[in-house]
Predict the structure.
Amino acid sequence: METMLAARMYGKQDIRIEEIPIPEINDNEILLKVKSAAICGTDLRMYMNGYKDIAEDNPRILGHEFSGVIEKVGKNITEYKVGTTVAVAPNMGCGVCDYCTSGKGHLCQVSFQAPGINIDGAFAEYIRIPEQAVRQGNVIILDERVSTEEAALNEPLSCVYNAFQKVGVYPGDNVLIIGAGPIGIMHAKLAKMAGAANIMINDLSKERLDICRKVDKTFIGIHSDELEQEVMKITKGKGLDVCITANPAPVTQKIALSLMGMEGRINFFGGLPKDKENVLLNTNSIHYKELVVTGSTKASVAMFSKTLQFIAEGLVDVKSLISCQYELENIQEAIEASRNATGLKNIINFK
């Protein structure tokens, strides 16, 4: 039996590098040799807090931001060939419910699956791509202009694009992103692509704001102590057209309402901890300013495909978000770097 190396999570803060059998595939599945897999905030939350069903007797391989080269295809598959480099949109629905048939499989409430969440993911040398992912178009052949490292960052970019579509960013808009992590910078990059006039990024960390300015000198970093004053100064007292809360802090959702101009659009992008999910908002602000308040979660296959196109065409540069690259054996070091907010995106690369 052929084996591979995999990083398996056995419980809270317990990930072990192990040699396990390479997954078997059926006639309708794909075996992918992983080339690049990025560490995500979701991975960190699962690692730090544990996750349902993951236990000593039921370990799981994390990792849902990935790309690779097709190693094997089932005999019933004709659309994909061995040796093709692909990225995989991780969110898989049942395929037949109303959400799935309308192209929103990421919202499926019937049998949602995602590698690294409720099935084995990509922090391993090989990953099995289930039939439903193949059938629903989740496996996307990479344009030759897109590296496997860039493709691994496309999953969070597609989630950001979901929010982007919800709020609508137009030429000349004043945009604020609260949260200066890699997700916040992706929001800023899409706002710039859309022609926003002023792109402001707010964070408690001055170091994070410095990183943002290094990524793009046109981004306006605002420390939290100066937020309202600076926003009103930059917008000449009108307030924001768009605000995106790209962090898990309830207070930022409240702050967003107070900073908006008339007919402003807000997206609550960052999910909140369960014990802090009820937030007291001034709904009169929504009423009298005619605000549009939206939420977004995950991304559809169509969104995933579109943002890969952005990368290929050079509309959005994700290379600037890559801080460090690690081998699988050093995944613990990569996790710690991500936990400590060292740099932006850390990637596991495979030979």
Remarks:
- The chain has two domains: 3-153+318-349, 167-295.
- The chain has a mean pLDDT of 97.
- The longest helix spans residues 154-167.
- The domain at 3-153+318-349 is CATH 3.90.180.10 (Quinone Oxidoreductase; Chain A, domain 1).
